[in-house]
User: Fold Pseudouridine synthase from Enterococcus columbae DSM 7374 = ATCC 51263.
Amino acid sequence: MERLQKVIAHAGIASRRKAEELITAGRVKVNGEVVTTLGVQVSAKDQVEVDEVPIYQEEPVYYLFYKPRGVISAVSDDKGRKVVTDYFSDVTQRIYPVGRLDYDTSGLLILTNDGAFAQRLTHPKHEVNKVYVAKVKGIADQKKLYPLTKGLRYQKVQYAPARYEIISTDVKKQTSVVQLTIHEGKNHQVKNMLEAVMLPVQKLKREKYGDLTLDGLKPGEFRELTKKEVKQLLGQSKAK
Assistant:
């Protein structure tokens, strides 16, 4: 099930905001009945019409993308900066990123047109492990990183416990490389958690999402997920 305005937007009829205007104006029908209430849920079996014309609901597609640094995790940007969908010019479906990676963060990002799938992976009540590798300023050790394993509060935001691994340290440059595994998706989470333990992030990459990795891909490249991978991701997103 998916919200009516999202179905209209994904079909390429209008933006989501414009789709909401079409609904409230009485120009949308579901199974022959005019719908003017926002938030109505429809399935692929429901017939949706806009101005008496049935819309085509796209077949779901799922992509794994290696997002480079300096790219916005969005479908458009009012400042004219490069966005992730710029790399999918040959994809006809109206896809969008599942969650986000910061502008200066690289790594694994999933894009899809399946709203239910995206919600399943990003909703707070579900847990999908995400693995990040961060280059930080300072020498990482167990004493500094231990608070992350208990969860911590930083700048009025509570973060769930994380797992860490110290990959390397450089005493001369006073830097370290740390791997962090989390299951939440709060804004700037990895950066904030490491800053909270006095290890500010200099460079960040997401290397794993569930069982998915970036193997075989270079920055800016993508591939379609297999049906098995999609099923595995849904299986890994478990309710608390």
